[in-house]
Amino acid sequence: MRSDTERTVRTILEAAERVLSRNPAASMEQIAEAAGVARTTVHRRFASRDALVDAMAAWATRRFAEAVDAAYTTTAPPLVTLHQVTANVLRVKIDWGYAMSRTASADAEVARVHAEVRERCDEMFRRARDAGLLRADTDLDWARRVYYALIHEAAVEPDEGQDDGQDADALAARLVDTLLHGFGGRG
């Protein structure tokens, strides 16, 4: 029974992401319809629309942390780690764009997960600097903030002529190249 409940919740969360991405004012009834469940099922799992959105943010945050954890390693070269973390995070941000835009939640668990990911990111940038990928005098806090902004923009604004399902690896390669080399000349 527990796995059925978990599947139902996941189905509702995924449907809510699709529906709210297209129409942020969508009703719980529209979300239920998209999930293929009764409105009462949605209300039984989530007391209110706000509770549903909070659950979406928590779900997306866990996927975000799992994406970073799956790619982060101190044994691979820093450039490989940077690329793989970026590609994994982009996949989550593209698939869960609505929910990820609401992760400034008051939920302590969401805040804790983001703090852990930030620590991992800071370590990744220290390794990149130590390997010479970033200048020795790089302000790592600024580099992380720029990196986050690049990820956000890449995930919410697909290239013209590209669909939303664009290849996360190719997008990650462009993003990492932009982060490390910018748009200046290489000379």
Shape: elongated
Q: Rounded to an integer, what's the Rg over CA atoms?
A: 18 Å
List the quaternary state of the chains: single chain
Q: Please identify the structural class as seen in this structure.
A: mainly alpha
Q: Would you list the SSEs in sequence order as H and E?
A: HHHHHHHHH
Average pLDDT number:
88
What distance lies between the first and last C-alpha atoms, to the nearest angstrom? 63 Å
User: How many helix segments?
Assistant: 9
What fraction strand?
under 5%
Total E-strand runs: 0
Uncertain parts: 161-165
Relative helix content:
over 70%
**Largest sheet descriptor:** none
Explain what the structure shows.
The protein is an all-alpha fold. The protein has helices spanning about 1-20, 30-35, 40-45, 50-70, 80-95, 95-100, 110-130, 140-155, 170-180. The chain is about 70% helix and about 0% strand. Helix 2 (about 30-35) packs across helix 3 (about 40-45), helix 4 (about 50-70) runs parallel beside helix 7 (about 110-130) and helix 8 (about 140-155) runs antiparallel to helix 9. The longest helix has 23 residues, at about 50-70.
Search tags:
187 residues; 9 helices; single chain; mainly alpha
Summarize this entry quickly.
The chain has 187 residues and is an all-alpha fold. Helices cover 72% and strands 0% of the residues.
